[in-house]
Write a structure and sequence with these properties.
Blueprint: E1 2-3, E2 6-7, E3 12-19, E4 26-34, E5 38-48, E6 51-55, E7 58-60, E8 66-68, H1 75-95
Antiparallel strand pairs: 1-2, 3-4, 4-5, 5-6, 7-8
């Protein structure tokens, strides 16, 4: 990103994973913090046909469809967010010591 002609990169400074106790496709919720200044909650880690992926927070519209509340604007940012969250999820699951939350956490 460019601000006043200077390139600026946004770094992820914190990721928290909240595994869920259900046996369904939803594996965990995640919270991500950028630059110790901007937080995004309620990202979902889902088991898809091709492996894990991250679903952005969304809101149900009156017509029954869902619309993302926040989302990356390019592929590179989406890949950075997804790979960082999935890596942290795998670390949390491997290390154990967590208390799973319900799907309605």
């Amino acid at each position: 990103m460019y601000i006043y002609g200077k390139r600026y990169t946004m770094n992820i400074t914190e990721i928290k994973i909240f595994p869920v106790s259900s046996a369904g496709r939803l594996k965990a919720y995640a919270t991500i913090v950028f630059e110790n200044s901007f937080i995004v909650r309620d990202l979902k880690i889902i088991e898809g046909h091709k492996g894990l992926f991250v679903s952005m927070p969304s809101r149900k519209k009156k017509d029954g469809t869902f619309r993302d509340i926040v989302h990356p604007l390019n592929t590179e940012m989406r890949q950075m967010i997804e790979s960082s969250i999935i890596a942290e999820y795998n670390k949390v699951i491997t290390e154990g010591g967590f208390t799973p939350v319900g799907e309605d956490y």
